[in-house]
Amino acid sequence: MDSAPAQDGLGEAPPSASPAERAGIPASAFAELWTLAEAGACELSEVEFGLALAASGARCRFGVPPAETVSPDRRMAFYRALHLKELALAQACALGRDIAWRRFLESYRSALTQAATGIAGSSALGEDLAGALYAELYGLKERNGERHSPLAGYSGRGSLMGWLRAILAQRHVDRHRRTHRESPLGDADFAAPPAATPASPAELTQLNQSVGRTLGRLQAEDRLLLASYFLDGRTLLELARLLRVHEATVSRRLKRLTGEIRKSLLKDLQAHGMSRRAAEERLGADPRDLDLNFDLNLRNILQTSPPTAFSQQAGKT
Amino acid sequence: MTEHLQPGPHLDADQLAAFAEGALAGWEREQAMLHLAGCEACREVLFLAQIAVQNPAEEAVVAPAVIVIPTPIWRRLAPLAVATALAACLVTAVLVLRPKHPVAPQADVAQVAPPPAVNEAAPADRPAAPQAAPRVHRPTVQPTRQPAPQPTAADASSADQNSAVAANRAGAADRIAAAPAPLGSVSDDASIENLPLNNRNAIRLAAPQPAVAGMAAGTGRAVGALVQPLPASPLGLRIEHGQTSTGEFAKIAGTVLDPTGASVPGATVTLRPAAGAAPTQVKTDARGGFNLAGLPAGHYDLQIAAPGFATVTRSLDLQARDLALLTSPLQPGAASETVTVEAAAAALDTDSSTLASTVQAMTQTVAQGKRILGLDPDGAVSLSTNRGRRWKKVKPQWTGKVVHIAASGDGFEITTDANAVWLSQDGKHWRQR
């Protein structure tokens, strides 16, 4: 999901191009966006605003799939859908405009502190977290000798407050991993499979492959649902809020998914030479045992990315 | 997935926030979910950021998520089109199912129960007389309402069918109710078919089909639903000949309704044979329906009584294999009518009667909208909150008698015999000035 290279209408404008040309839209449309964003109130110039628009669009290909060409209409639709005021404010803050900072603090200081408190779980930790983030957003950290503010990375697609919450969460996780050691899970955390006969290594290999094939056929949202619920232990409420559905819907989907996975696993195991009885023994009688019997398998298969990202990040931030 | 925050292929804060707010494009959201399904670290950050969303103060700052890709116009109009279609269906259903008699059921029955005089053949050119015009359905209405025979093998003898039906009509001419009425007064709406027969409608309309088929098969059985003349009785009656399959017996089926069209369960239906045999008595079921089967041909007196309603009676002649379909809209009992009153139904609204006397005895009233405050000669205050339909004594919070009541702004004001003035906005809660 990295930003695509400049192609299909995403080519960079020459340095002498006007702000509208940089954004790839007509001058009248740019003027309309400029007015909507109230960028002038943040002391953001038209050129800077045009650059911010172009950077935001190029970062996510204007919401267009990689195989398609970005049309001017799509480009304009993308710009219109942005949180333009917040984008202009974030860009002005990243550029160090005082008036923008005053507006930012007026609008977000209280909410940011509250969010940090909610994330950190305590008022003191939350204030520390928020204070550290203020410093970082203000650009006190320098990169290659230049002042750098994470606000420059805000694209305007989501709300600025949502972006700030995500940054806070990242920083909190980073700090937690810097200051805490991960404790390995005890053996008692995993229930013993109810299968009467222990599985042979060959059967376990076959089972692992079968689980991999079955889970690989699932849709992305279903995989996210399974991983969040069974691996992370998220509640139905959290999942429902994330997917913007009702808790009952999440519950039904989970039940359906586990049932389907069990059926699919049985078929797959039988298709690869295992008898039905043996396959059922390996799976257990109840589909709900899936998270117990195959917790490790699920973790191995769903957890494709190495869990070292934050560890690596911890040393850099 | 930018170099600003995290190295590597992880979702950056911007993408996480956009994903959480549903602002990513479809393909981008799919990729984000694929990554999230496999990346515990990003899921952790995502759910952690979601924790803080619950704070309403932050929600006020967060603007609603915006869909990046514009929706096509037809898709945006789809809900409107669906709503319009639903509304059209609803209107159609209301128009189709709406009772065609806007007046009370009593009036309906009166329309199909003309005085005997109008049963005589009336000249077609007779001037329309609104009061005397028998707004009964034409005798030809019933045959036309019978379902047309389906194009089956019976079609081969359709001419025979028609002639047989015509002969049957001629033979039963004395049983046909009304002569053709003046054109201006004849209305299908007034026909007995439109009476609320509840679930009997299905039987009535479906029954003629096998009879016609039977004619086509040459059974020679008398067919054709014929309408008996209806006396001036609030009973809707329709007799269909040859419609029962219980040997040579006839059957009466009906529904007892109240003036609003609601069914009357527990009504007593008494059928007295004219021959002096023992009467048969049944109670209507929960839907107000009743059935009297196995009736020999003959003359009967039918009586329907229900607590709180006027008893209705009528006589009818039944032939073998007749099916009498009956609808009886009962009217509330009047003083001059025979009303069966049961103990349970004799509950009086003692509250109303008491308060009615209170209203009569009041010496002074003050109205504020729907609320009326009344003062009786004893110095007690009563309050009505529904324009005087019901009254309730106001519990005095003052000492002594009230000598004067008046309106005060939007509320009320009373003055006691001790010259204390009390104010209230609603008439219930009072405070001393």
Automatic annotation (TrEMBL), chain A:
<dbReference type="InterPro" id="IPR013325">
    <property type="entry name" value="RNA_pol_sigma_r2"/>
</dbReference>
<feature type="region of interest" description="Disordered">
    <location>
        <begin position="175"/>
        <end position="200"/>
    </location>
</feature>
<dbReference type="InterPro" id="IPR053812">
    <property type="entry name" value="HTH_Sigma70_ECF-like"/>
</dbReference>
<dbReference type="GO" id="GO:0016987">
    <property type="term" value="F:sigma factor activity"/>
</dbReference>
<feature type="domain" description="RNA polymerase sigma-70 ECF-like HTH">
    <location>
        <begin position="153"/>
        <end position="255"/>
    </location>
</feature>
<feature type="compositionally biased region" description="Low complexity">
    <location>
        <begin position="188"/>
        <end position="200"/>
    </location>
</feature>
<feature type="compositionally biased region" description="Low complexity">
    <location>
        <begin position="12"/>
        <end position="21"/>
    </location>
</feature>
<keyword id="KW-0731">Sigma factor</keyword>
<dbReference type="InterPro" id="IPR039425">
    <property type="entry name" value="RNA_pol_sigma-70-like"/>
</dbReference>
<dbReference type="GO" id="GO:0003677">
    <property type="term" value="F:DNA binding"/>
</dbReference>
<dbReference type="Pfam" id="PF07638">
    <property type="entry name" value="Sigma70_ECF"/>
</dbReference>
<dbReference type="InterPro" id="IPR014284">
    <property type="entry name" value="RNA_pol_sigma-70_dom"/>
</dbReference>
<dbReference type="GO" id="GO:0006352">
    <property type="term" value="P:DNA-templated transcription initiation"/>
</dbReference>
<keyword id="KW-0805">Transcription regulation</keyword>
<keyword id="KW-0804">Transcription</keyword>
<keyword id="KW-0238">DNA-binding</keyword>
<dbReference type="InterPro" id="IPR013324">
    <property type="entry name" value="RNA_pol_sigma_r3/r4-like"/>
</dbReference>
<comment type="similarity">
    <text>Belongs to the sigma-70 factor family. ECF subfamily.</text>
</comment>
<dbReference type="InterPro" id="IPR036388">
    <property type="entry name" value="WH-like_DNA-bd_sf"/>
</dbReference>
<feature type="region of interest" description="Disordered">
    <location>
        <begin position="1"/>
        <end position="22"/>
    </location>
</feature>
<protein>
    <submittedName>
        <fullName>RNA polymerase sigma-70 factor, ECF subfamily</fullName>
    </submittedName>
</protein>
TrEMBL record, chain B:
<keyword id="KW-0479">Metal-binding</keyword>
<dbReference type="InterPro" id="IPR008969">
    <property type="entry name" value="CarboxyPept-like_regulatory"/>
</dbReference>
<protein>
    <submittedName>
        <fullName>Putative zinc-finger</fullName>
    </submittedName>
</protein>
<feature type="region of interest" description="Disordered">
    <location>
        <begin position="116"/>
        <end position="167"/>
    </location>
</feature>
<dbReference type="Pfam" id="PF13490">
    <property type="entry name" value="zf-HC2"/>
</dbReference>
<dbReference type="InterPro" id="IPR027383">
    <property type="entry name" value="Znf_put"/>
</dbReference>
<keyword id="KW-0863">Zinc-finger</keyword>
<keyword id="KW-0862">Zinc</keyword>
<dbReference type="InterPro" id="IPR041916">
    <property type="entry name" value="Anti_sigma_zinc_sf"/>
</dbReference>
<dbReference type="Pfam" id="PF13620">
    <property type="entry name" value="CarboxypepD_reg"/>
</dbReference>
<dbReference type="GO" id="GO:0008270">
    <property type="term" value="F:zinc ion binding"/>
</dbReference>
<feature type="domain" description="Putative zinc-finger">
    <location>
        <begin position="14"/>
        <end position="43"/>
    </location>
</feature>
